[in-house]
Amino acid sequence: MSTEVVQDEQIEKMIVSSSPHMFANNSIQKIMWTVNLALLPAVIFAVYHFGMPALQTLIAGSLSAVIFEAITQKILKKKITVSDGSAFLCGLLLAMCLPPAVPLFVPIVGSFIAIVVAKHSMGGLGYNIFNPAHIGRAALMVSWPVLMTTWTAVTIIDTTTSATPLNIFKLQGYDALINTFGSQAELYRSLFFGLRNGCIGETSVILLVLGGLVLIYKRLIDWVVPVTMIATVGLLTWLFGPHGLMTGDPLFHMMAGGLIIGAFFMATDMVTTPITRKGKLIFAAGAGAITVLIRLVGGYPEGVCYSILLMNCVTPLIDRYVQPTLYGRK
Amino acid sequence: MLGKIKWGIHPDTHKSPTEGKAIESNELPRKVILPVRQHIGAPGEPMVKKGDMVKKGQLIAAGSAPVSSNVHATISGKVVDVSDKPHPGLGKCLAITIESDGLDEWEEGLPTERDWGKLESSEIIEIIKNAGIVGLGGATFPTYVKLNPPKNSPIDTLIINAAECEPFLTADHRIMLEYTERIVTGILIIKKVLAVDKVIVGIEDNKMDAVKALTTALAGQAVQVVAVPTRYPHGSEKMLIKTILNREVPSGKLPMSIGVVVQNVGTAVAVCDAVRNGIPLIERVVTVSGSAIKEPKNLNLRIGTTFADAVEQCGGYKFPPEKLIMGGPFMGVTQYTADVPIIKGANGILAFGKEEINDGPESPCIRCGQCVEACPCGLNPSMLSILGERSLVDEALNEYHLLDCMECGCCTYLCPSKRKIVHYIRYTKKLSAQKGGN
After folding, report:
1. CB contact (8 A) between residue B413 and residue A20
2. Which of A20, A282, B116, B216 is most buried when burial is the number of CB atoms within 10 A of its CB?
3. Are A193 and A16 in contact (CB under 8 A)?
4. Each residue of A75-128: pLDDT tens digit?
5. Rounded Cα–Cα distance for residues B212 and B201 (Å)
6. Distance CA B233, CA B407 (A)
């Protein structure tokens, strides 16, 4: 009798659970806020470069994303998880992919589409098929094409231009682009440091790569993805150059547009890209190839956003057929 | 020889509380509980009944099935109960409870010194079988079965597994330092039985003192001691074979099928005691550790000693434990009572407090891929957990190789969504077994 009682007390006291009983200090919150931090240098530079309108767009985008997520989860009677940083990241990335001086409703509508439509209608974090920030941007592109392609005038060297380098390349050709910047070296320097026109967060190659390297060091992204995607773009743009085969300018294409931010921060999105390294490689190469196709042949000057969305479509397929190498099944 | 290792994880080792402490020999327990099944295989048949007097080393449950094992009395005294008792690994199991008479008398004729060099292999295997020796690393596969491979599986290599990759556990580390001579003899006996030329001892490189001790003791014996990188789960025989020999055990097969036999270093001690000294398996070294234990120690305990008694010998609890575990933190089994016995495969008792229990609420998989990267079996744990959540047994079985999982726990340890991946996998395996049974 007495032993039975003792046992009952112990049953209540001790946790019985499936192994393992030890866990790494790892969480979604930690991952997402680290990515947000990795974007910070590029964000600060953007505000310095484009001024107050950029700051307003960034704040509107990230804040509205957080608010939309909280409201959606409240309505769906789910646990409110805005503190995990994923909604903030989504809104921030969306805003970074917008022209600096859009009216404030643009990032807010974009965040609504990203969070409510692309993320939560699919089931929330982990279940969305498409990169929510890019869905938001794509929706804005079709809804307000003029606003989304109107750039503030930025003074580069001694000419003031309100076109992005890729725009000049698309509409006037490569030689006109070199003329605008003065020389090829000057073009590269502007792209590398981000002293050019473009979306808020995409301009500074050096700061984005720096953030990306932190994520690679922290093992939050696989270096295979940015390296493959950027190299694919470089290779294909060099091959199919403006003056025939192998006359392209790979360095320009690798640093222009949204490729760097896309390759380091969007094509590496965990939820919407393949889970194995081999799969990631296929994804990145595909995204790079589609980017080049759009830039050189398609109607838009830039194709990073659509290329990643298109590859998001085939991610489940890649994951099904590209599985890790099993032990003991040689 | 050592290829580049891509699998696994580097958890904190937590070995410092016990790794520097000499093994303490056991106080005689007042009672022991001896389950008839402490091994993989059929349970032993009880040979005593309530009220019988038994001596230390006496056979009390005979394993007569092809894969089974004997159980011996580990103290002298009176059989007070033969009934179902809580078992640390099986829930409940028929067990023989012996109350000590305080004399600790040996069964007649025990121990006996033998000149093992003159014994035939078949005689040695018989002795090991009768002594009830099973794999002491935790898997508890009867040792005589491993030493008697079928004719169509020629064995070329014997690996002694001394990796001890589980955090907290230091029992194997201590025996390598303190029971070195018995280990050497045990290894040489096993080597003789298997008639192999190639013998390799694999030790994780966080135990260089043990590497040195064994290298010195084995000088001139044609036995190689290898320091393998410290990485969990290097103590899994599949991983150790891969690192040392660059061979992979085919899915669903035993290491024998690729010419390898792996024995735990503790098993070598038991083999030496049985073959050279005629002592059946009645004691083993157990690490008692965790934040809830007052003085973490390595204890040489009689098999059947209750967890409560073992904890008592370590000064008791600092505070009531949140979890009491048999084995290591990765593959150990939680207990609902401390009134369970040390069984042959119990290499550790861990009493965890709040500080060690840091799993949070589960959230959906964000497909970060860390589990895929770490999985030593090359599985997709993320997908297996999702399929398990939805009870999709066939897909898990046929497309995602459910049964290849050895439940090492790397995936669950890393998961940022705190998903209990191994639990989902166990659940799916159980569903699949039920389906197969119908």
Report:
1. yes
2. A20
3. no
4. 999 999 999 999 999 999 999 999 998 999 999 999 999 999 999 999 999 999
5. 12
6. 10
Give CATH 3.10.20.600 domain extents, chain B: 25-110+280-354
- The structure tokens 């009572």 sit at B337
Which structure tokens are listed for B163? 């990796």
Mapping DSSP to helix (H, G, I), strand (E, B) and coil, where does residue B133 land? coil
Residues of A in contact with B373 (CB under 8 A): 277
Compute the nearest-CA separation of A22 from chain B (Å). Answer: 6
Does the beta carbon of B317 lie under 8 angstroms from any beta carbon of chain A? no
Q: Which of A21, A28, A222 sits opposite B363 (nearest CB)?
A: A28
CB contact under 8 A, A24 and B9: yes
Give SS3 for B438.
coil
Rounded to whole angstroms, the Cα distance separating A205 from A197 reads 13
Cα angle value A117/A123/A124 (rounded, 5°) = 75
- B248 → closest Cβ in A123, A222, A330: A330
Residues of B in contact with A23 (CB under 8 A): 358-359, 412-413, 415, 418
- Cβ pair B381, B389 in contact under 8 A: no
Q: Which of A10, A126, A320 sits opposite B338 (nearest CB)?
A: A10
Contact: A17, B417; criterion CB under 8 Å: no
Beta carbons of B420 and A18 less than 8 Å apart: yes
pTM over 0.80: yes
Residue B25 CB-density burial (10 A; 0-12 exposed, 13-18 middle, 19+ buried): exposed
Let me know: does B81 contact B96? Beta carbons within 8 Å.
Answer: yes
Rounded mean pLDDT, B196-202:
95
> Cβ of B414 under 8 Å from any chain A Cβ?
yes
Intervals of CATH 3.40.50.11540 along chain B: 112-277
Residue of B336, B206, B342 whose CA lies nearest to B282: B342
B340's tokens:
């369970």
Query: What is B25-110+280-354's CATH number?
Result: 3.10.20.600
B182 touches B269 (CB < 8 A): yes
* CB contacts, 8 Å: A26 with chain B: 370, 414-416
Residue in B375, B369, B373 with CA at minimum distance from that of residue A268: B369
Which of 2.60.40.10, 3.30.390.10, 3.40.50.11540, 3.40.30.10 would CATH assign to domain B112-277? 3.40.50.11540
Tell me which residue in A21, A125, A319 faces B366 most closely, judged by beta carbons. Answer: A125
Residues A2-13 have pLDDT tens digits of: 444 444 455 457
Task: Give tens-digit pLDDT for B345-391.
Answer: 999 999 999 988 888 889 999 999 999 999 999 999 999 999 999 99
Q: Which 3 state secondary structure label does DSSP give B59? A: strand
Q: What's at B167, amino acid-wise?
A: P
**What single-letter amino acid sits at A182?**
G
Q: Which residue of B has its CA nearest to A78?
A: B363
- Separation CA A263–CA A287 (nearest Å): 9
Q: Is the ipTM of this complex over 0.95?
A: no
* Partner-chain contact B416 A26, CB within 8 Å: yes
